[in-house]
Specification:
The chain is mainly β and 206 residues long. It has helices spanning 20-23, 59-62, 120-125, 129-139, 189-192; strands spanning 14-19, 33-39, 45-53, 74-82, 89-90, 96-101, 108-113, 151-157, 162-168, 175-179, 182-188, 199-205.
Amino acid sequence: MLAAATTAMRSTCHTLVLVLTLLLTACSGDELVGVHIKLEQDGKGTLTTRALTTPDPGRAEAATKGATFTARASLVASQGQFIRLDDVKLGGANGLRFAAKLGDDQPSVRVYVPRGPEQQWIQALVPDRETRHKMAEVYDPTGKTLEVGNMIRIEIELPGAVVASSVHPAGRGIEADRERKRAFLLLPARSVTEEGEELVWDITWR
């Protein structure tokens, strides 16, 4: 489970462990994992994370006789509340972080997205590529799905209509877009785990 290192986050978190077979589709590029933020007019909000992980044995395994289980995969969704978006940091002080400018005619949020194989915020959401391949075999034993958790989606739901959503520098498969009151950033896990310049994602709304 991914913990947001912020004193503004309430201590109580609601956690749901969801079985992959209920949540995944047969497409490898689905944005299964990521971060969703709902930002209110007063700057408070709700943070939801979805992380791909290897769970402990479940009740189905305990109820099964005559088979030895050797692989598992789950999607863990965790939710909590924050007082100030600027206080929310995933993966340490230099990890995924936010800077909100509220109260102006053109409010905005800037998101800093560091890249690299040692980034804790990435490791907290998705395992390495080899593990993702093995998890795909658990989810889809037919072999049609080659990899799961290969796309990270960061989405921010805002109190007004989004007028701009852009990211720089450009990168392979990296996409910033918007739809009504939502802005989202799509990040291929393979791209963000490579060493590179920190991404800056800018969002404005009205």
